[in-house]
Structure formats: C-alpha cells, structure tokens
Automatic annotation (TrEMBL):
Naturally occurring in which organism (per UniProt): Virgibacillus salarius
Residues that span the membrane, as ranges: 12-30, 42-61, 73-89, 95-114, 135-155, 161-179, 200-218, 238-258, 265-285, 291-313, 325-349, 355-375
Superkingdom to which the source organism belongs: Bacteria
Domain Major facilitator superfamily associated stretches: 8-357
The name this protein goes by in its record: MFS transporter
GO cellular component: plasma membrane
MF terms (GO), sorted A to Z: lactose binding; lactose:proton symporter activity
One protein family per Pfam: MFS_1_like
InterPro entries, per database record: HcaT-like (IPR026032), MFS_assoc_dom (IPR024989), MFS_trans_sf (IPR036259)
Keywords: Cell inner membrane, Cell membrane, Membrane, Transmembrane, Transmembrane helix, Transport
Amino acid sequence: MSNSHSLTPLKMLLFAFHATNTIILSYLPLYLKYKGLNGTEIGYVLAVGPLASIFAQPFWGYMSDKHKTVKRIIQICIIGLLVTSILFFQMDTLLAILLMGAIFYFFVTPIGALGDSLAQRRADELGVSFGTIRWWGSVGFATSSLIIGEILTRVGIQYMIIPYLFFGMVALIVTFKLTDVKVESDPIQLKDVSEIVKSKPFVIFLLFIMFLSITHRANDSFIGLYIEQLGGSEGLVGVAWFVGVVTEAIVFATAGFWFRKYHPLVFVIIAGILYSIRWFIYGAADSPIQIISLQFLHGLTFGTFYLASFNYISRLIPKLLQSTGHLVFFATFFGLSGIIGSLLGGAIIDSSGGGTLYFEMGCLALIGTILITLYHIMPFGKEAYVHQQDR
C-alpha cells in the first residue's frame, strides 16, 4: 500500500471534521441570535466550548496515552459529537443550551487536537511534511464555509444542524479506515504539568501571547455578528471565513520555505503587528466588504502566529514533556483565551457595538506585541531557548 493511499482516510477525516467545525464557528453565533439570545448570552454559550476543552483535552489525551490508541478515541468523540449535537440543537432556554453545550463541546473539542497529533505522528513515520496533511483540514473548512453560507442564506440559519450531521457522519465513516499509530509515550502525569509550569520562560511567554490569542478568539466568536451588524448576510459571513482560511492554508502549506529563516519569536512579533493593524481597520469599517477584503490577513496573522508559537514552545520543552506542553499551550491558546474573548467580547458588542470591540482588540494586540518584543530582547527568553538547543 503506498503512502499516499494510507493517508487518504486521515486527510478525509481532517477535511470532514474541519467542515463541521466551520459550521459551528461561523454560524453558531448567528443561530443563537435567531434563537433570541443577546450578545452577552451568546458570549456565555461560546465561552462554554473553551471551558469544556480545558477539561476535555487532558482527559481524552490521557485516555489516548493510557489505551495506546488515537484512532479509537477519535471514534468515541465523533459518536459523542453526533449524538450530543442533535440534543444541543433542540434546546431553547439559555440554561439548557449552556448545559447541553458543555456536554457537546466535551466530545467535540479534542477531535482537532487528536487529529493533528495523529497527522504529526503519521507525517514523522512516513517522512512527509505535517503541513501537507494538515492542509486538508483548512480545505474542508474553506469549502464548507462557502457552500454552507450560501445554503443557509437561502433556507435559513435554523437548518444548520443538517449539514453539520452530514459532515459528522462522513468523518465517522472514514475513521474505520484510519491507520492508528503506536503511542509510545506514557500517560501524562500531573507532576509533568507542574514541571512545565515551573519553567519561567514558558509561563511568561504564554501570558504574553494571551494578549494576542484573546483578540484572535474574540474575532472567531463575533466576526459573524459584526458582519451582520454592518449589513451582511450568512453568505457573506461564509465568504469572509473562506478568504481567511484559504490564506491560512497557503501559510501552512508554504511554511517549510520561509519559516526556518528567522527565530520563531520574530514571526510572533510580525504576526502581532499585523493583528493590531487588522483590528484597528476592522473597527473603523462601515461595510462588510471592507472586512472581507482584509480577511486575507487572517492567514498571515493566525497562520504565522500559531506556527511560530507552537514551534517556539516545542523547542522550549524537553522531549519527554512535549505532549503535556502542547496540551498546556492548547488550553491557553484556545481554552482560556477563548473564555475571556467570548465573555468580554459579548459584553462589549452588546453595550458599545462591533466597532468599539475591534478597536479595543487592536489596543490589546498592540500591548501583547510590545510585551513579546521585550521578551525577545530580554536575556531569559534567549537563554531558555539556547539552553533547549543544547539538550
């Protein structure tokens, strides 16, 4: 069996799972608005996802290490996704939506990380680039955002569960053909986490990038509502995500060419500067077209920021603690930042509107960029990094 064949189910899984992910990320805020929730309440629901992920990621990661399988855990999570999403979309009151949402997200949030982990390990086994496998996730995301946006504009946001279940079923079917990887590492121990948290450069770096990741996550949550505030349709929300994700896919796919050239922190700083500029311009926008035309910056900001931070953190942590370190990184980047971004963003968009929200995100990103620049100049950022290279 050739390499490319054995990777097809994995690529299909990433494609289908990220297609379901788009539907939740792009349209859930609009769907909740349709259900009668205001911005603050939508913020609560969107904060449940990252909150659940902080518990779900370590739990499922631990189960995967303990039972030495990634494939089986992905299957369990996808079955959970299908069952709980049906219930989640039946709920009508805020409390019921929040409680069911927590259970739904408990199964959904680890799938992306487990899929990436499987892709990373398979890429190493076969000697291919991780980006070429992970790229299929971005393609699934982009395709789904365009097509589903158009469909929902025509039939109505209330039917978003149907395409969601369709892609979810595809994801489940292809998992049966997946090649599992031998998980060599032992389950993550709590002492590993405390070991990592004792590393000063690691903790300070995570704190500083949170200024950027909070703005990134707030944009994830509220760009759909903001485009609607500016007069755009579900279809335009889909186009905005499409443009963003296509550039993200290009950045991931070409990372091999440009990424080695400088220290990863230089790329984090560049991404930070672009984030600040991007949010300030979004805040001043008065039509959805202005947002869409600048969405190509999504790939340059998020793609560069994510790759560079992930790379820097991987070099900062000893080999044995890699998977734990990555989990702590995910929990901060997507979890904690997501909670803060959703709660604050919801309250601000409710009280002052989207323009103010984006202006304040610009200020936050600017502060983060300055802090990371100082961190890069400061001796301990360099020392930790050099020290790690010698291991």
